[in-house]
């Protein structure tokens, strides 16, 4: 049954001419099944890696694609290095990646290994982090603020961003920013009493 599903998956990805959720659903059923063999997961990764080199194809759904990679890294953690390689390559070579897909990719990278984001280079990590935070996609903003301490963002910049988003119109974004400030104070020594006072007053406002 497993091999039959895998064969069908390969065939659908090869012949479909428009975006369809069917192959992603089939792949997801295999990924989340604890009985699926490592060989099958490896084959799925090979399919995804091949697809990642053809992102201009209209049948390529980046968000679902990255979701599959994220799930592989969670359920089959020993494949995380391969997932990291594919995601890193995709983020660096696909400038038109949609915000939600980019946010999920970046969060997955730093969840697999905190060093992954810094390995991409400071300009990439900080620049993409800021552009996504200030972009229109609110769920992405919340996700990145929740993982803010994992990104290679200069402390002064990160503090400004977190303080700013404590006044975001969305309450769950404000909460993520405030939680981020709390975590920030745990790993950064703040000697500026005005900065500490500002954080305290903002928390009282919330």
UniProtKB/TrEMBL annotation:
It comes from the Eukaryota. GO terms for cellular component: endosome. One of its GO terms (biological process) is intercellular transport. InterPro entries: ARM-type_fold (IPR016024). Signal peptide: none annotated. PANTHER family: INTEGRATOR COMPLEX SUBUNIT 4 (PTHR20938:SF0). This is Armadillo-type fold. It comes from Cynara cardunculus var. scolymus.
């Amino acid at each position: 049954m497993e091999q039959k599903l895998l064969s069908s998956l390969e065939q659908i990805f090869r012949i479909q001419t428009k975006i369809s959720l069917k192959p992603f659903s089939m792949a997801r059923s295999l990924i989340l099944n604890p009985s699926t063999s490592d060989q099958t997961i490896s084959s799925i990764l090979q399919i995804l890696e091949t697809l990642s080199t053809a992102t201009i194809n209209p049948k390529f759904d980046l968000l679902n694609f990255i979701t599959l990679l994220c799930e592989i890294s969670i359920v089959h953690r020993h494949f995380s290095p391969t997932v990291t390689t594919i995601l890193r390559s995709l983020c660096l070579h696909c400038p038109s990646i949609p915000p939600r897909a980019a946010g999920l990719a970046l969060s997955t990278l730093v969840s697999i290994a905190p060093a992954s984001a810094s390995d991409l280079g400071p300009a990439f990590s900080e620049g993409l982090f800021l552009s996504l935070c200030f972009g229109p996609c609110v769920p992405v903003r919340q996700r990145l603020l929740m993982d803010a301490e994992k990104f290679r963002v200069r402390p002064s910049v990160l503090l400004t961003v977190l303080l700013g988003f404590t006044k975001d119109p969305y309450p769950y974004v404000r909460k993520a920013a405030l939680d981020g400030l709390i975590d920030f104070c745990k790993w950064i020594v703040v000697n500026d009493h005005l900065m500490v006072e500002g954080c305290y007053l903002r928390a009282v406002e919330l």
